[in-house]
Request: fold
Amino acid sequence: MTQPIPRVGFISLGCPKALVDSERILTQLRGEGYTISPTFDDADLVVVNTCGFIDAAVEESLDAIGEALEENGRVIVTGCLGVKEAQVRAAHPAVLAVTGPHAYEEVMSAVHAALPRPSEPFTDLLPPQGIKLTPRHYAYLKISEGCNHACSFCIIPQLRGRLVSRPIGEVLQEAENLVAAGVRELLIVSQDTSAYGMDVKHRGDFHGGSLIRTHITDLAAALGELPAWVRLHYVYPYPLVDQLIPLMADERILPYLDMPLQHGNPRVLRAMKRPAATEKVLERLAGWRAQCPDLVLRSTFIVGFPGETEAEFEELLGFLREARLDRVGCFPYSPVDGAPANALEDPVPEPLKQERLTRFMEVQSRISREKLQARVGQRMILLVDEVEAQRVVARSPADAPEIDGSVIVDGPWELDPGDFVEVEITAAGEHDLWAQPVTD
Ligand code: SF4
Reply:
């Protein structure tokens, strides 16, 4: 008599790094012969990968656990909120197990204890690129876990621990498997991408018979050899970024840097315990743009950090006007449970935070609009995301999926998601561009 195949329901919350954790757990489950169930009531148990970054994420995670308990009754909790086991158990005493972020083995042990693995794993069910939660043509590639900084508004080092870089040979193998499986864009993620390999003193590792350093420049150069776009996220303005710019100028990796800068005033940056001083950042930006004029910069900022004065906020606006970044996200400061910044004096009143957010966005929206407008008439290569009856939604090298804009190509075109197409930009809106394919 054949054994029924055990079925696991799965819910993944949180950031791209958590998504990568989910992909690894799903890959392991499938590798061991479990089936992934699309519904909770049809599953033998449910794994909830939670986020615990801000209060709203904690609430969303606790709600998701409650829903899974209601619909299924057997729930294993993992991810960032898992670090606060007491809080999870206080809200939901019936959960079977609670593990923290990137605790793949512990999650698997909890699954094995609650739902024994099939006696003959169907290892051939496991595709070499693993199980992916993103569309088939792009994939997040996580290169390290944790962070060695101590930014005062952040609890990620408490949640995820200190920097641990993955061996470069393993990262490159995963990238090759993804590209062989049809991935056309690799999104490099970590808490601090430029610090890759610092924890192992950039030691060498073997890949394809050659020795290669565990270093972001070597990794970017090797990834740049693959037939896929390579986009770097969460890069800090360390001097070594200078070595990445020539790879962008040579079109080996995308001329795109996602660099969270958070503020433009040195005192506020010191209070935030951020690395890098503002003048140096502006100088560096100018140097990078001189070497690679197509460079696109995305960043995030916090307004209303405790103690931020009107003059310091004005300095931030001045920084924005000078830096002329392409895409910017801005958040009013919100205290995160357990973050050292909560103890700082002079909290900025909520209405003032909102007023500063509005002023910040007025300045930046104008810059972003002007930068988009300047692309009208340019030719560029797009990567197709979706094909609809009367239009194609695609992205240029300047647009990361989920966070940046799109390029819309009106009309029915014989294209598929994952195709590259050359276009001329015909119009610009607030966030998106419009284009026509180049036919000559
Ligand atoms: S660099 Fe700062 S904000 Fe980013 S994860 Fe590390 S401590 Fe948090």
About this structure: The pocket of iron/sulfur cluster is lined by residues 147, 149-151, 154, 156-157, 191-192 (CB under 6 Å).
